[in-house]
Structure formats: C-alpha cells, structure tokens
Amino acid sequence: MQEKGTISIHTENIFPIIKKFLYSDNEIFLRELVSNAVDATQKIKRLATLGQYSGDLGDTTVEVSFDEKKKTITISDKGLGMTAEEIKKYINQVAFSGAEEFVEKFKDAKDANEIIGKFGLGFYSAFMVADKVEISTLSYQDGAEPARWTCDGTTEFEITEGDRKERGTDVILYINKDSEEFVDKFKIQGILDKYAKFLPVPIKFGTKTESVEDGEDKEGKKKWKSVEVDNIINTTEPIWTKSPNDLKDEDYLKFYKELYPMSEDPLFWIHLNVDYPFNLTGVLYFPKVKNEFELQRNKIKLFSRQVFITDEVKDIVPEFLMLLHGVIDSPDIPLNVSRSFLQADSNVKKINNYITKKVADKLAELFKKDRESYQSKWDDIGLFVKYGMISEEKFYEKGKDFALLKNTNGEYFTFQEYEDKVKALQTDKNDQTIYLYATDVDQQDAFIQSANKKDYDVLVMDSPIDSHFIQNLEAKLEKTQLKRVDADVVDKLIQKEDAQANLLTEEQSKEVKELFEKAIGDQSYTVEVEGLSPEEMPVTITMEEFMRRMKEMAATGGGGMGFYGAMPDAYKVAINGNHPVVDKIIKAKTEKTKMKLAKQAFDLAKLSQGLLTGKDLTSFVQRSVDLL
C-alpha cells in the first residue's frame, strides 16, 4: 500500500496560516494532540461499553515521550486507531470533524456528548513546531491493516503500509530548529501540568523516583528504598466531576491547595452541576479578598471536558465574580478553532446568568443558615458583593437581603435593619435620612466622636469601591443620603430646625473671618464663621461631600470622573463662633497674639486631618511649646 496526494483544503494559503498564526501560543500543539489521543481512548471505551467492541481494552494510558537526539516528540494512545481510508477522511480533509459521524451513529447512547472530540485543525497545530509529522496507526476494526501517514508541512502527504502491531495511534513530531526548546523534559512536563493535569485518561510522561517501604532494620525501624515508577501527570477524576454528596470539606480544601498552593484556605465554595439547558460543572471558591482588588483576578480556570483552556473567563463569569477562584468545565461554551478564545453565543450569557444566580443563592443560604458565621466572613467577601450590586441589577435585588453595613462599633446590619436603627434620629429638616460614614476610622476619630456625642451612628466604608457603592446606595435607597463624617461639622451634615445660633456679632464674625484668612494665607481654604455647639472644635477643616466623593471615584477608576481627579483640593474652614478659643482670640490684646492664636487653632485642625506636614508641622510644635 502506497499513496501520495494533496491535502484537501479550500484556500491554497491556509496551511501556512494554520502553521504560524492559528494558535495564540505554540505550546498548545501538545494540548491538542494529547486531547485527540484522549478522545480516541474514550471512544474505544465507549464502544466496548455499548458492545460495539469485544476485544481486550488493556492498558489505555496515553503516553508522551521524546528523543533529544532525533529531536522528536511522540504522543501514543491505545484508542480507536484509524484505517488508511479514515486517515484520508479525518486528516487530509482539514476541519472535518470525525466526532460528528461518531455521535450520529450512537446518538441514542447515554452521555455520548462526553466523548465528542474534534480532529482536523487541532491536529495541524503540530506544524507550528514540526518540519514533519508522522502518524502510525492501527484501527480497532477486525482485519484492519496498519497505516503510516507522513507530511512535511506542505499540502503534500504520503500514506504507506505501517508496522504498528497494537490498536491505537502514534503521532511523531520531527521538531523544527526554531522549536527545539520543546524537546526538553521540564518544558514538556510544564505544558502537560498546565493543560492535561485533569484529563479523564491517565497520561504518562516517562518515569519518576519514589520511596517505598523496604521492611525493617534490626531496631524495628522502617527502611525505605527508591524505585522507578510511571510518571502519571494527571488526576483523572477531579472533584468537579463527582457528586457533592460524595465529597467532604477536606476534599474541597485539598483540591483548592492543589490549584493555589500558596493561598490561604477559602471561606466557602459552590459546587456547580447543571445539565440543562446547558452542561456545566465546576467548583467556585470564595477567597479571602479583603482590599486586594486587582491582585485576585484571573484565578478561575476554564476547562472543556477536563482539558484546560484558559484563565481568561471574563465573558463567561460576571465581571464582579472574577475575584472568585476555582474551575468551570463546560463542553457547551463555544470556542474558536484553537480553543483559546470565546465567541459570542447565547449559551455564554445563560451560563453567566446561572453562575450569578448560584452565587447569590449561596450567599443568601449562608446568611439565613448561620448569620453569625456569615458576619465573621463579611470583611472578606463584602468587596465582591458590593461590586456585584453595583454592576448587576439582578444581583442587587438579591443582594440587598444579605449585604451588610458595618458601623464603627463593629456591628453589622442589613439595609432594612440599618434604616430602622437611624431613621428617627438621623433624619434632617428636609426629611432626608442621613447615613454618616468614615473611610479611615483612626484619622477621622475626632469627627466620629463628635457624631457619637449626638448619638449618631457612623458606618465604616473603607474598601476600594465604596465611593461607587455609596453612589449606588443613594440611587436605590429612598430619601436617603450618605455623608462622610468629616465632610462638614456634624450639625451641618444633619441639619435640624433648631440650628445653633452664632453668639458673635456681625462685626466680630467679619473680624474673625479676615483674621483667619490672613493667618492661613492659602486660597484653597475657604473660611466661614458659624454658630456651632461650644463642645465642637474651635476650627474644623472639611472637604465638601460631592467634591470629595468625585475625587475618590476618580482615584478608583470611575468613568467620566477624571475631570474631578485633576482638580486641586479645596477645603472649607469652619470657625466655631461659640467656642471659648475664638472668644479668646477676639479678646487678645495685640494683633500679633491674635494671629498667633488663629494660626495655632488652624494648624490644630490641619493636624487632626493629617494635613500638617514638613515645616508647617515643625512650626506648630515650636509654637505649642511657646504658648505653654
């Protein structure tokens, strides 16, 4: 048997395109060829189950080997094998899917989808690294003759009689000079670890040394010896392929450590398992996110029938859930010919919605089942819950029942609970309920204490996206405003009908205003004299709520906020006309003393806001010593 011919393609220049540009990463050739070997192996197993093959299956391990001297890589399987006619049909007709015919033949068989494999372009990825490719194969069919196919990277091929004695296929790659880096034990091992670690058929790559017990010594201690064993690189039944009922917490934690060896244990997890209207399995873990917003991304791995595809899953997983870790496996996610990039498809949207719903349901279940435990995890999971509520309307509707607000006393409240807590006392003269919040509890302590003196409650909003979350809450909550506790003096933040009167005369107020403006000498500070409680600070420095919020949103990437981020800081200086210190300044005998006291009071206010640095801080310390 000998035959030469031309590979059937529709465009003459498609072959060099396949060879150089089809795949985003040339290491994918090994993934494709090993996947094909696994497909062929699963098919023969399926035929045996269906009674279509009565021979001895034997050892069905797929083997990857290499020859450093000959510069070859070989992928061997004991699967279906091919006849010369099947080679012509499946290999020489680029992009023909042998699986289509196979599934049609056994379309009534249970779980036939699990053994669908694609031939064609996946096989031709071999030419990204090889000058020549050889196939040596023997079909499982009775009376089949072994066949050999060779191609040198052009459209010319040759089929001759083969010498294979056992059912299955060897694919031998003669690696080109530019790709000799792949003829290396550690390189191949790394690629297999990345793409084939969870394939459903054992993959052997050489051998490895293991220590085994070798009896006992004279003192009764165990002896060990080193032996060479097959290096099986994969776990054929990862936990996402099993029923949750068959798994324990230790199994999930062990698998998590296998995926992310250096990570802390996750908080909890969701086992995904759906077969209608699409097929999807997987396990998603909730890591300890805290405020490491960007560092946690791209931790979800996408598989297709246990073949690793990518960790770029933004089209499948909602943006806010990119902070999760874990595995998703679905044969229904459409991929382009290289399996590396997702295509737009209705299934992707359905899967996206399903994952969102499962996460929301899990959080609601945890909240209802054990609120105390849920609250203990809130500081870790709150970031992505808030992110989800901002970005997904459906998630907000579910999330408002299990999202929590935390106050400076470390207490947690649902949205409804918090409204009930503060509505009576923190409603202003315009019938707006005011939620006060702090972004830095330590730095804003003076303002928090001032609010607490009036029995006002203060929330903690210190995550990277809280400026956006606050905007979202104000849009959703009826007659409610959120104000940062240091955005103004507390009586201005929650204005009541019985506002404090200013005890200074109009002339005194004008004098104080001019005196402080001169002492400050900086136009970015706007001075106002107000009637406040004598218990408040003599001077308070604040940034107006709207401007501060816009700046914070600009700093965290808020769309369209760049204008505010570029604006210089502008502060309001509130002089408490009812404070004894202001009265002392007015009654000072000399202008110099008045200026010195005003400057000291202003610098004290700057110090409380963390605005006093450098020479100004040194001058303040020296002035304090002089005044003592």
UniProtKB/TrEMBL annotation:
Signal peptide: none annotated. Keywords: ATP-binding, Chaperone, Nucleotide-binding. CDD domains: HATPase_Hsp90-like. InterPro entries: HATPase_C_sf, HSP90_C, Hsp90_fam, Hsp90_N, Ribosomal_Su5_D2-typ_SF. NCBIfam families: PRK05218.1. Belongs to the heat shock protein 90 family. This is Molecular chaperone HtpG. It comes from Algoriphagus sediminis.
